[in-house]
Amino acid sequence: MQIIFFLLAATALISGIMVVIQVNPVRSALFLVLNFFALAAIYLLANAQFIAAIQIIVYAGAIMVLFLFVIMLLNLRQPEEGGAHRHLGQKIFGSFLATAVIALVIYKVFRMVVPPAKPLTPDFGSTEMVAKSLFTDYLLPFEMTSILLLVAVVGAVILARSKVE
Amino acid sequence: MNLPLLIGVMVVKILVVFVVFLTTIAYVVLMERKVLGFIQFRYGPNRVGPWGLLQPLADALKLIFKEDFTPPGANRFLFVLAPMIVGLTAFLPLAVIPFADKILPDTITIYGQKLDLTVASLNRGVIADVNIGLLYIFAVASMAVYGAVIGGWASNNKYSLLGALRLSAQMISYELALGLSVIGVLMISGTLSLVGIVEAQKNMWFIVYQPLGFVLFLTAAFAECARTPFDLIECENELVAGYQTEYSSMKWGLLMMGEYGHVVIASALTVTLFLGGWQGPFLPPVVWFLLKTFILIFFFIWVRGTFPRFRFDQLMYFGWKVLLPLSLVNILLTGIIMLYI
Fold this sequence. Notes:
heterodimer; A: mainly alpha; Four Helix Bundle (Hemerythrin (Met), subunit A); globular; B: mainly alpha; two-stranded antiparallel ribbon; 65% helix; 4% strand
């Protein structure tokens, strides 16, 4: 069980790094898909079947397909190795920011207090349980998310229309 | 509990199902050529073996021995990866489709070891009875787009890329209608597990309660398999052969196997969701399941023989402005009826 977890975690981390350092946008997107799969498998290990399935359907199956679609439609040319010439100030500021973020993460990880483990209920992670908590305890945030999505859809349609006319 | 033996039984079961599935795909290809021949007043393949029954073997041999050509300028790794994804995503959904009720007794004795086969539903006619069965199928099916998109892009060919773009637009549009059309079934059965859905149809098939859902699901499934009224992705008068243009030899064979695998899976899934799965009187469950599945496959071929192809704008119009609203109406109607009856 632990070996599987570490294998998956390594896959997720490596593919995540590859997403950032790949120059070719299509390859970068495909590494992101691999990353999503590793995450879904980790969810499965944590007994969260429903979340794992949704992760694949929504992120890998819908969003990343649209990403690939757009990348191919735009037909981005492969940029030169090394990319654009960078300013010295950019380099200093960037490395300072990166160090600060890493320091913060390390500080937080060492200060973290892990709460005592609770035994799982037998239906943990099943669709029924997720649905029940979504429609009872978390009804308000759930409905508000749906309104937010609706607003985003309407906004996207308006943006797409005004371009055509 | 004897873990190695249990795993052995599991592997044998998976292998049997897989071999039957591959044979089915091979003979569905032959069946399509025969039925199309019948529809168009000609014989179809009848030279290899009695009634052309060995034609799939001849086809496979021919494909294996053909030159395997990779076009210059193609992205080699992705060009090889694409047919693998297409094939894999066509085989994976099989894991959760129940094809029979009980196929083995609860306990058997192998080499003097008593085995409890109720573990991991080894004695049932399904490989894995998971809680999220239907979601699993949708997740795997949504991966099928990648095979085509990657293949079309990696081929470095205009027609391949256009075919891949068309396919991804079509799959995304019809996946919505496909997903929404089964919600009525889920509302009635109250479970996502396909075994549970089949058991809920003990007294009445869901096609009776969900006639609109059935029609919507079948239409969207045709589009997802890219079968004839919706086969714009390989529409040969415009795109040569769509994303498959540059493929040859067994890579092309794998793409074709994926395509026919999708047809078989779509038929089996329709049977499971709407036509009572393996349920039926007199005959054994497996026979019922295969019979119903083959009737639906015949329907797929029949439609291919008789329908013309849509135009691309018609396809998009139909998916977004007809199928999607209708499937929402279906959910609403099911909800209202369930509330008051």
